[in-house]
Amino acid sequence: MIRHVDSDLNSLKDLLLTMGGQVEKSLSRLDDSLADSDMKSLQEVHEFEADINRLHLEVDESCLVLLAKQAPFASDLRLVQSVVKINTDLERMGDLIVNVASSAERYLRFTVRVLPPQWGQMMEEVRWMVSNSLNAFVKLDPALSKQVLKHDDIVDCHNTDLTGVFKERMKSQSIEIDAGVEALAMVKCLERLADHSTNIAEEVIFIVTGDDIRHGRRQSV
Amino acid sequence: MGLQATSFQDRKRKAINIAALGAVLGLAFLAAVPFVLVSGYILVKGIGSVDWAFFTELPKGPGETGGGMANAMAGTGVLVTMACLLGIPWGMATGIYLSEYGHGKTASILRFTVDLLTSVPSIIVGIFVYGLIVVHIGYSSYAGAAALAIIMLPIVARSTEEIMKLIPNSVREAGLALGLPRWKVILRILVPGCMGGLVTGFMLAIARVAGETAPLLFTAFGNQFYSTSLDQPIASLPVQIYNFAKSGFPDLVRQSWAGALVLVGLVFFLNFGTRSLLYLKNRKEIKS
Amino acid sequence: MTSSTGPILTVENLNAYFGDFHAVKGVNLEVQRNEVVSLIGPSGCGKSTFIRCLNRLHEEVPSANCEGRVLIEGQNIYAENADPVVVRRKVGMVFQKPNPFPGLSIFENVALGLKLAGITKKSVVTEIVEWSLRKSALWDEVKDSLSSPGLSLSGGQQQRLCLARTLAVKPPVILMDEPTSALDPISTAKIEELVMELKQEVTVVIVTHNMQQASRISDKTAFFLMGELMEFDETSALFTNPKNLKTEQYITGRFG
Fold it and tell me: C253 and A5 in contact by Cβ < 8 A?
């Protein structure tokens, strides 16, 4: 049976994925700009953020209308509730990317500093997680979600390592304190981006199975 | 194109409509004509003879003038009352059985039998009661009332059944769900709930038997006096009318017209009065 | 004789039939005291038949019969010596269409069950009638017109009158068969409020077609399909994360 609510739910999913796409593009632009130390294209993440914020409001409103009009139950209800939460995650991710860009801009002002190679590896992991948490949402694939969750541990390692690297450089005065602080902020933001991806992955598992595995409640998976 | 009906088909359709409506209206009003004529004729022929003496005096013998039908009116009252006492509970019980318990084959057969009883000619009922009672105890009020009660029985039974069936089943279930046994549901909820309809059914039955002549000829027989005992013959309006009308004495024929008028009036007022009471009762219920 | 701790209502392997038609198939269910339990499911799934077995009303339909055990406060209502009339005083029922007794006043409608159950002392009857009408939130609307016919009330008021009539005999369990399906939203909301308040004192089993209603008022929900009990769970769980695929499909409107 084709249900009217399905077309509403699909539009809602599409809207959220458009938003997710903007987050991905923004992150990709950030990555490319940093690799090329291109200050100009770094500015463009702000445009993405504006778009993400607009979509954030739009998704919220769509959810509210859908809840009011369709009064969904069961998997439909879980989907809408998760969209509300993923929406917040994506909006925060847009902000974090802007934060990385701003810090990077200041960091790069202290003559041209090359970021350590591990930064690139961490960035790659984070981009994989963001992209695949969204893929998991599209396909409603809990297995892929679980892979995303596993990758968070890798990102955490990178986070610890890179934090150590920058601390060491500051101690050895191979970079200025100001530059080091910005670099640490950038690493922290990247790590937070990965955390938001895991949130999305957890929501996907909730949508599909109804199991809430957050905060260590993984035994039911 | 306008919305007026101008084509040939449209005009034909309208013409047929008017003709059909006219026919239905005409025949419907024609149905009232016999009643108007009958009651009008009786009124004209009888009104002159309806006087105080007619209601209070006993009949005089043939050839004499004056006198009345007091004994016949009293007799009809006695016979109808007795028939009601017997026929209404009997008919109601049958109707309640058919409506509330009658689901199986037995009930279908019983229902069919009751219907057949309706179509038995009343004179046959009279002969039956003659054979059953009169040959043993003679012409009497008992025999007359029994004959009338048998005629009432199917009318009361079927009207009771139909009226009770009109009560939604959910009312019965509500009663049962309250923890009432079925018989209490019937007597305390269903019967009071449709009393108005039931009484209308009784009235129809009474109106029917009040005018019966044939069965009384064989059972109550009739006399020219006040009956003092229920096991004696008793006069009744229809029989008195019948006897006087065929007597050939002008004064008795005149009185039989008056009797007919009183009988028609009696039935009419009984009917009208009951309906008015029910109407007032319903209106009070709806208003409050 | 009766325990006040165990389930108030236990259904064991209940089967109900209309002639050859198997309407309820092997249902097992337990209802705890002071719970509101909703029964949902598509039309003809046996949920109404099921509750009509709980007060032995099912057997009043010609050709209908049922088998299995139904324990009310630990006692089997289908035991050899159990009397349906006595059973029904313990298990009240409110029907789909408001059905006040025709020809009876508001007062008489509520008092009749009491009188016929042997409570005849006028002061007691008056007191219980008022209590019942207050409990069903009708007292303020009818206290000046207790002698008016029950049928003169509006549909929503009539349904509350029927609830008062049921409450008057103080049954520990009340069954409701789609009690609001003939009512407007305001009257519906009033009945729902009453159900939620009543559960302080009674246990309610309610059949409803309105899933929102089930999710609003009940503690537990049972989903019936083709005469079978497919799922019985906490309402909060059943409506957010049903275990059974059929339940999921039904409550999300994919069939039914």
Answer: yes
Task: Delimit the domains of chain B by residue range.
Answer: 73-235
Residue A82 lies in a domain: yes
Question: What distances in angstroms separate CA A147 from CA A134, A142, A205, B91, one per listed residue?
Answer: 12, 9, 12, 84
Cβ-Cβ contacts under 8 Å between B and C: the total is: 80
CA distance C60 to chain B (A): 9
Q: Do B129 and B219 form a contact (C-beta atoms < 8 A)?
A: yes
Q: Note whether C117 contacts B: Cβ–Cβ < 8 A.
A: yes
| Phi-psi region at C235: left, alpha or beta (left = phi > 0; alpha = psi -120 to 50) | alpha
Instruction: Kindly give, in sequence order, each residue whose CB lies less than 8 Å from that of residue C230, ignoring residues fewer than 6 positions away.
Output: C41, C223, C224, C244, C246, C247
Domain count across chain A? 1
Class of domain C9-251: alpha beta
3-state secondary structure of C141: helix
The CATH number assigned to the domain holding A105 equals: 1.20.58.220
Q: Return the DSSP state at C149.
A: B
Q: Which of B101, B106, B170, B178 to mutate to test the interface with C (most CBs of C within 10 A)?
A: B178
List, in order, residues 6 or more apart from B48 with CB less than 8 Å away.
B254, B258
Of chain B residues 129-168, which have a CB less than 8 A from chain C?
167-168
Distance from CA of A80 to the nearest CA of C (A): 11
How many residues comprise chain B? 288
- Per-residue burial over B218-229, b if 16 or more Cβ lie within 10 Å, else e, is bbbbbbeeebee
Residue A215 maps to a domain: no
Q: In a structure prediction context, what are the per-residue pLDDT tens digits for chain C, which is 256 residues long? A: 444 678 999 999 999 999 999 999 999 999 999 999 999 999 889 999 999 999 999 998 888 999 999 999 999 999 999 999 999 999 999 999 999 998 889 999 999 988 877 888 999 999 999 999 998 999 999 999 999 999 999 999 999 999 999 999 999 999 999 999 988 999 999 999 999 999 999 999 999 999 999 999 999 999 999 999 999 999 999 999 899 999 999 998 887 5
Residue numbers of the domain that contains A101: 4-209
B178:C55 CB<8 A: no
How far apart CA B92 and CA B272 sit, in angstroms, is 22
Residue C47 DSSP SS3 = helix
CATH hierarchy code of domain B73-235: 1.10.3720.10
């530059």: which residue's tokens? A179
Residue labelled with tokens 């003659």? B130
In a domain, A220, yes or no: no
